[in-house]
What does this fold into?
Amino acid sequence: KNKNKAKDEL
Amino acid sequence: MNVFRLTGDLSHLVAIILLLLKIWKTRSCAGISGKSQVMFALVFTTRYLDLFTNFISPYNSVMKVIYLGCSYATVYMIYMKFKASYDGNHDTFRAEFLIIPVGGLAFLVNHEFTPLEILWTFSIYLESVAILPQLFMITKTGEAETITTHYLFALGLYRALYLINWIWRYYFEGFFDLIAIVAGCVQTILYCDFFYLYITKVLHGKKLSLPA
It folds into this structure.
């Protein structure tokens, strides 16, 4: 998984 | 999850619920830009499509559902339930001037050229400018109800707190999402003028009114 993506944020 | 991210999320939640309660209690959406609210509903819809594909945590899923639900409820109240009080005459910002360029940019500048990723990028870009019709409306009428300014302050504060969260995450996790960071900076900068007025006027007990 790409670490540099704010997908765990809202 | 750090304290800035959490307080950012809570500030966002306070803003959304405050607006919903204000409309519900006063049975009126006067002074609220329906166009901004439709764009926020669009932002949440396009960003949270991963609710079905990518489970992160119960906190994450619950917050997404609350944001989505409240946002649709707000749009419903403005355009259906309390439609008579909607100030459409003053809500004249052309939403297509934001949605079309932002859509184009999401196609051109994204992490990955896939439908979900483009929609996520679109939501990040659109969120950064979605408040403009609301700010434009206040400039046009020259004033805002105090409760509306509390809403705007909490909404602006949320992204500012996220900026600190991203600095934190960069130092402690080596994490950075350039798209989110640049859009988050733009979003926060748009609120600066309002923050100044809020602190100098509203916090001193005065109503927010602009000189004619």
Chain A has no helices and no strands. The mean pLDDT of chain A is 75. The interface with chain B takes residues 2-10 of chain A (CB under 8 Å).
